């Protein structure tokens, strides 16, 4: 019974070397931060997808563009990324039309270029916001196994150093040290696997949203070009 208690998970962590315990604490902190970003990013990507679908339905319903622009401006934070891209392009188009009518009524090319640049800038801002913290997940997924391996190597090295004071080396003598060392690798994998899976999933979802944003920018630019004739 005592042997079973000594080889329990918590007992192994408590009896581990200080360096190994610090590595375990670091991996646990990385895992907690990783799961925090995973849940936050999951909600953010889901909300961005729903807001994009809702705005696309409103836009392609054939409503007035000025009314849609006014609604997107008044509810800017809640309207979603695609609505903010539309608002940037439509707002720049309206300002450009007003300015060109005072200077040169035929200067429509510069107006369209300004609207397209405004949408591209808004597109990059929205994409940067969606991509935030993905690098952290990628770093956790790639580095955590090596950090855990460092703890394992250190723990095994410390276990074999302890055998120098033992007259006869047996499996019972070396097993606790090796077991507590291997826990570091297990914690490292526990931190790395969800981070890698989440990173790949979020990257795929964000890439699909980026394609929808780019397609909208081109389609809306064509609509503005037809309206400026």
Structural class: mainly alpha
Average pLDDT metric:
84
Task: Report the sheet with the most strands, covering strand number, pairing sense and barrel closure.
Answer: none
Gap between N and C termini: 87 Å
Notes on the protein architecture:
There is one protein chain. The relative contact order is 0.16. With 229 residues, this protein is mainly alpha-helical. It contains 9 helices and no strands. It is 88% helix and 0% strand. Mean pLDDT is 84; it is low at 1-5.
Topology, please?
Blueprint: H1 2-6, H2 9-15, H3 18-59, H4 65-74, H5 76-79, H6 81-103, H7 108-131, H8 134-162, H9 171-227
List keywords for this structure.
mainly alpha, 229 residues, disordered N terminus
The gist of it:
By secondary structure, the chain is mainly α. It is 88% helix and 0% strand.
């Amino acid at each position: 019974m005592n042997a079973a208690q000594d080889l329990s998970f918590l007992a192994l962590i408590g009896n581990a070397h200080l360096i190994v315990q610090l590595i375990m604490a670091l991996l646990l902190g990385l895992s907690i931060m990783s799961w925090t970003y995973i849940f936050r990013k999951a909600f953010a990507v889901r909300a961005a997808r729903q807001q994009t679908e809702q705005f696309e339905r409103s836009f392609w319903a054939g409503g007035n563009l000025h009314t849609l622009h006014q609604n997107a401006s008044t509810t800017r934070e809640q309207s979603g990324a695609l609505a903010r891209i539309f608002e940037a392009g439509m707002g720049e188009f309206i300002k450009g039309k007003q300015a060109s009518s005072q200077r040169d009524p035929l200067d429509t090319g510069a107006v369209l270029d300004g609207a397209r640049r405004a949408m591209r800038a808004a597109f990059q801002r929205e994409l940067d916001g969606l991509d935030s913290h993905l690098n952290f997940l990628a770093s956790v997924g790639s580095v955590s196994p090596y950090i855990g391996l460092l703890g394992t190597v250190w723990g095994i090295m410390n276990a074999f150093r302890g055998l120098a004071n033992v007259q006869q080396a047996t499996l019972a003598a070396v097993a606790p040290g090796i077991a507590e060392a291997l826990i570091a690798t297990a914690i490292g994998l526990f931190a790395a696997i969800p981070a890698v899976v989440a990173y790949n999933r979020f990257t795929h979802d964000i890439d699909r949203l980026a394609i929808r944003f780019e397609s909208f920018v081109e389609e809306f630019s064509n609509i503005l070009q037809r309206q400026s004739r």
